[in-house]
Amino acid sequence: MLQKLYDKYICPHLINYAMQMKPFRKQREKVIPFASGRVLEIGIGSGLNFNYYNKANVSEVFAVEPDGVLLKKAKQNAELNNIDLNIQQLKAEELPFDNNSFDTVISTYTMCSIPGLGSAMSEINRVMKPNAKFLFSEHGKSPDSNVLKWQKRMNGIQKRIAGGCHLDVDIPNEITKANFKIDKIDSMYVPGPKFLSYHYWGAASPLK
After folding, report:
1. Which class would CATH give 36-48+55-206?
2. Domain spans, the chain
3. Beta partners for residue 62, in sequence order
4. DSSP codes, 144-167
5. 3-state class of 12 per DSSP?
6. Are 106 and 32 in contact (CB under 8 A)?
């Protein structure tokens, strides 16, 4: 009961606050400006990517977000940034779009908390055009064994307090096993506790 109340009334606001911190803003700057054409954001949260769009290159913006509180904030941020947003309260595992619909799909700090990540990645691949790009900035599995041990130890707590977030998702592996080719990827620790702060960012293409 308490977990359900926390998830509904507290967690969305904490996530929105955390995602506005400087390390996350710096990471968004590295990938979001490359979005172009018809764009889909997966787990858009409160719409914190809008400020980094190169609007001259973006024709339409669609999004899915399962949390109603964050969805409402995303609509507000879209208005502030003069973005005509088509958003639906849905999970990424079942996208309501036709095959080959989007030029760009964006995932920022979302892959860690999707329960059926494999299914979601397959859906993302399905709705992308053959020459489309998947832009991502995610935290995930550390390459350092001692840090990884702490990620695994802290996973239970993290999932409860951060909306189902997993600390040790192998981001490159999850992308490639969903039939994507990684075109560019970088990784490093950003400022913060090491078990929370190993980040991956880059771009991938669907293999079709």
Report:
1. alpha beta
2. 36-48+55-206
3. 40, 86
4. SHHHHHHHHHHHHHHHHHTTT--S
5. helix
6. yes
Radius of gyration in angstroms for the set of CA atoms belonging to the chain, rounded to a whole number = 16
Assign 183 to helix, strand or coil. strand
Tokens 């979302």 appear where?
Answer: 110
The pLDDT, as a whole number, for residue 180 is 99
Q: What is the rounded distance in angstroms from the CA atom of residue 103 to the CA atom of residue 194?
A: 34
Please tell me the predicted confidence (pLDDT) of residue 1.
80
- Whether 80 shows a pLDDT value over 90: the answer reads yes
pTM: 0.96
Report the C-alpha gap between 134 and 181 in whole angstroms.
10
Q: Tokens 């064994």: give the residue.
A: 145
Q: Please, what sign has the CA dihedral across residues 85, 88, 41, 164?
A: positive
DSSP 8-class letter at 168: -
Bridge partners, 182 (sequence order): 204
- C-alpha to C-alpha distance for 135 and 40, rounded to whole angstroms: 10
Q: Which of 133, 113, 136, 117 is nearest to 202 (CA)?
A: 136
In the numeric block, which tokens belong to residue 28?
Answer: 């968004």
The token duo for 110 is: 């979302």
| 8 A C-beta contact, residue 84 and residue 60 | yes
Beta strand pairing call for 85-88 and 102-108? unpaired
